Structures are given as structure tokens and as C-alpha cells.
Amino acid sequence: MDATTDKDPLVQEQIYNALCYLGESEPEEILNSCDEYLRQHDKLAYPHRVIILKAMETVVKNNIALLDKSTAKEVIRDWQQAASNVLVAVGQRFINKVMEEVLTKFQPGILPHYFVMQTFANLSVSNGE
């Protein structure tokens, strides 16, 4: 997964494809490996983190029926946290665009998802003056 930091888009795409391919035969192993890698490399640049997150999303979508309930729950929580962190980081430079997107998740009469609220709060903290 270290190759995700390669600047060549073709290499990045090959890493994504390899993770997805391996995820077809061993979805829980790949999801756990990606999760562990992201935890160990918390300073990984966001464009590279997104490659791994997208691969995790594809593996989950393609193998949802095969996943153990506890694995699925853990992966979804971690994936949502990582996605929230990406939005907050991007929001440090493009706050208006990120806020516009986050605000679309607020629907009248519907309680917002926990991670929407957490992202909203973290955006305000990271951009407070």
C-alpha cells in the first residue's frame, strides 16, 4: 500500500485495482489490512488516503453479504471517521465548498447522522478564529 504515494496516476490506479481484486477473495483480510495501514499512517496525504478508502468502499459494496457483522460494523465506523477527517482537512482550505456539501446532509425533520454532526463540529473547530 505504500505505492499509493506514487505520483503516477497509473500506479495509483493499479494499487486500487489490486486491493479490489484481493478483496474479492479475502474481503475481511483486505479491509482489516487497509484499516491497519491507515491507522499506522495517520499522516498519509489525503489524496493517497482516498485511494485506500475508495478500495475499501468497493470491497465492502461487492462483498457485503460475505462480511461478518462485527467486521462490517467496525469497518463502516472507521471508514466514516476517515471520510470525516478528509472533509475536515479539505475544509481548512476550501471551507465554503465543504460546508455546502455537509449542509446538504441536513434534511428537515430528519436527525442528521452522527458523523455528519461530528464533521460539522470539527470543521468549525479547525476553522475557528
Automatic annotation (TrEMBL):
Residue ranges annotated for the MROH2B-like N-terminal HEAT-repeats domain, each copy included: 19-127
Cellular component terms per the entry's GO annotation: cytoplasm
Organism domain of life: Eukaryota
InterPro entries: Maestro_heat-like_prot, MROH2B-like_N_HEAT
Pfam families found in the cross-reference section: HEAT_MROH2B_1st
Protein name as annotated: MROH1 protein
Name of the coding gene: Mroh1
